Amino acid sequence: MFYGLFNGGITFDPETDIKDLSEKVIFVTGGTSGIGLQTALELARHNPSHIYISGRNKTSAESALKIIHSAAPSAKVTFLTCDLTDLHDVTSCVREFLRREKRLDILILNAGIMASPAATTKQGYEIQFGTNHVGHFLLTKLLLPTLEETAKLPDSRVRVVSVASVGHLIAPDQGIVFSELRTDMCNWHTFRRYGQSKLANILFARHLAELVDKKGSKVIAVSIHPGVVDTGLYKSVEKWYIVPEILKIVRRIKLYLVDSNTGAKTQLWAATAESSTVKDATSESAKGKVVNGEYYTPVAQAGEGGKSSQDKELARKLWEWTEEEVKDYIL
Fold it and tell me: Is 3 a catalytic residue?
């Protein structure tokens, strides 16, 4: 019942455990607040060539840039507008990024929404699935050639980190309800819809890892659960029945909610730690190292995804379905 709620795993200190990031180019979606902002801030302290943060709110971006520069005055950080609910906007964002950069070392797919009212994206996808999965899929698909080229460079360590959630365990029984993805899925509880989108994040990373591995690319793709982080995602839960009372209890006894500093650690570790050639992420030799395609809970704990999250056939079907959906937006 409490799977994924408590922090454990290895000890990871971003200040001392992240190595020098000279020449590295980094892209963090949703980098204007919460764990996305904290992630960008911590990475900025390690001398990257350039960090890009994306989001929809320019006011939040201005504030985020000030916070990052106060911690890392010499860091080069740029905000790119990217509305993941609009695939045209995603394409525009990537076009602007590629106009500026020829390499990309770390892509952290951090942006997301949670427990939103029933609605659809501009292209008609269920709002949480469209934002959390489809928009990020297109973004990654467009940036993948650059990631693969970067991975060919000497001393490169190219990562795609998909920020998923323990919430994938409450996805519908069939995992992904393909027949209803182009509706608002109003007959499904918002948590079910959220769980479906987070399951998609894990399946996406697993299949991406398989594809790049078959091509002989050194790109590594993983998904992570950051912990149950007390961030803006929880603003909408105040109107959930029963849940507000549960959250009040949890906040009062500090049972498992963590702050953004702690919540960012797993994705920071996944983005920067040494990789393992051992494919069994639960083995002793792979402990503390990043294994391609794995799903991790805090910090660096592998092998804890639900059954559907390990379904290779479902991952393949999701990839092919999404690829067909976004084909008209490929540059």
Answer: no
* Residue 194 annotated as catalytic: yes
> Could you give the CA distance from residue 221 to residue 232 in angstroms, rounded to a whole number?
26
Alpha carbon separation from 40 to 6, 46, 108, 297, 304 (Å, rounded): 24, 10, 10, 20, 27
Say what the pLDDT of residue 37 is. Answer: 98
Q: How many domains does the chain have?
A: 1
Identified catalytic residue from 24, 198, 265, 289: 198
Residue 63 pLDDT:
98
What the block records as the tokens of 4 is 């994924």
Band (168; pLDDT cuts 50, 70, 90)? very high
For 97, the domain range is 14-325
pTM of the model: 0.93
Task: Give me the percent of the chain exceeding a pLDDT of 70.
Answer: 89
DSSP state of 134: I
Exactly one of 24, 52, 125, 194 is catalytic; name it. 194
79 with 88: CB under 8 angstroms?
Answer: no
**256 in any annotated domain:** yes
| Residue 320 bridge partners (DSSP) | none
The answer to the question of residue 198 being in a domain is yes
Taking the C-alpha atoms of residue 70 and residue 77, their distance in angstroms, rounded to an integer, is: 12
pLDDT at 244 > cutoff 80: no
**The CATH number of the domain where 98 resides is what?**
3.40.50.720
